[in-house]
Amino acid sequence: MKVTTEQIKLLPNESFRVIRWNDNVRDVDFIDAEGGIHPFRGTGDTWHSHSEMELVLVTRGTGTRFLGDSIAPFKAVDLVLVGSNLPHHWQGDSFSGHGLQFDFGHEHPFWKLKETHALRTLWTNAQRGIQFTGDPAMKVAELIKSIPQHDGIGRFGLFMLILEKLEKAPQKTWKLLSRKSFTPSQDQSSYKGIQKAINLLLNNFQEELNFGEVVKESGMSKATFERQFKKHTGKTFTQFITEVRIDHASRLLVESNQTISEIAFASGFNNLSHFNHKFAEIHNESPRAFRKRMKKQPRL
Question: Do 26 and 147 fall into the same domain?
Answer without folding.
Answer: yes
